[in-house]
Amino acid sequence: MKHLGDVLEANGALKVKDRAAFIENLDGFLYEAVFEPDAARKAALLAAIKEAAKAEGVIPCSIHDFYMAMGRNYAGITVPAINVRGLTYDVARAIFRKALEHKVGAFIFEIARSEIGYTKQRPLEYSTVVTAAALREGYRGPVFIQGDHFQFSLKNYQKGKEAETEYIRGLIKEAIDAEFYNIDIDASTLVDLSRPAVKEQQRPNFEHTAMLAEFIREVEPAGVTVSIGGEIGEIGGKNSTPDELAAYLDGFSEGFKGKEGLSKLSVQTGTSHGGVVLPDGTLARVKIDFDTLKVLSDMARKKYNLGGCVQHGASTLPEDAFDMFPRTGTIEVHLATGFQNIIYDSTHLPGEFRREVYEFIKTEYAGEKKDSDSEDQFIYKTRKKGFGPLKQKWWGLPAGIRDEIMKEIEQKFELLFEKLKVKNTRALVDGRIKPVPVKKEVFL
Prior knowledge:
By secondary structure, the chain is α/β, with parallel strands linked by helices. It has helices at about 5, 20-25, 25-35, 40-55, 65-70, 90-100, 115-120, 125-135, 155-160, 160-175, 200-220, 240-255, 290-300, 325, 335-345, 350-365, 375-380, 390-395, 400-420, 425-430, and strands at about 10-15, 60, 80-85, 110, 140-150, 180-185, 225-230, 265, 310, 330-335, 440-444.
């Protein structure tokens, strides 16, 4: 078996000594890097793999310029932003296969602050796995990787404002260093609805967002304009309104001192993360206020020159809902739990392994079970936490099993790419995004 040092030379600058051997052995190299126990060695291996992928033409990029162009002339598409919690390499490869098949260029891989923790995927690992998946499938060009819900914890903020703010600064810096060139700042948790005026309600939100946006502009690499998103409605809360959008964006504009501001704005129109699970473990049907979504997205584009509005928590919606996002001018839709459900509920996932994960969840997270939860509700809401601690066992499932599950994932993306109208968008993206390879020093 070859080792990474046999095919790459990394002494500051990277040199690929044996391109064919690197790609041929990529699966093994990546596995070694992801599960390397020594943190410094792991970081070195991951960085080398990512730099080698960039050398082959897989370039992490910002989607900012594309979104700004869509704001001026909406292209009738909604960009899927995909959170991958488990079997990330396999899932990403499945997505790239579908993207290549349908010439899709407008799609984003993302991971939220909370997911980074419970899936045990730090930004460098996540971005490396995604770029390696692109390389393995023959996908070249811009790859969009996003920090989703870099969110203020209200509980932590109330304990210590400065400490919580510095934590998010650190996470942003870590993510940008790992080539997440798309960052969603979520200070919507700080909105204070007890204040009488809408602008005062939104003030903690837009002030903290402006501050962190300025920080992003300070630390982003030369030649890269990170795409920054804001948020006015905490997902699962009350629906957003035009007055809230105006108060937030007006306040942001007044306080932001940078050159380039937000490219998009997330709003709440009726969804919740993961969907609403019933006692029998099935999902309740959710009604989205598409009229409000259209009003808000039009307003964001026409009055404030943003790319448009973003819908979160959509992956568990019924299939007939997805046609509505391009029709209402939604620029981006966030998708997560639906893919997790495909993996857990697949008939190809061995029942014994599923039971092992569920028993782990029931033991390790017993304290999270509410008195009102049925066991099915508890498992559904908590099984996202079964990926991180058992990651090596998930990755170690036989290839034939993983391949069959990925066929189901591909079927889902066949539908999503069609309904969100992103098929044949590669040329559209290439016309607006000029990849800027950011040189990183690597040592093996």
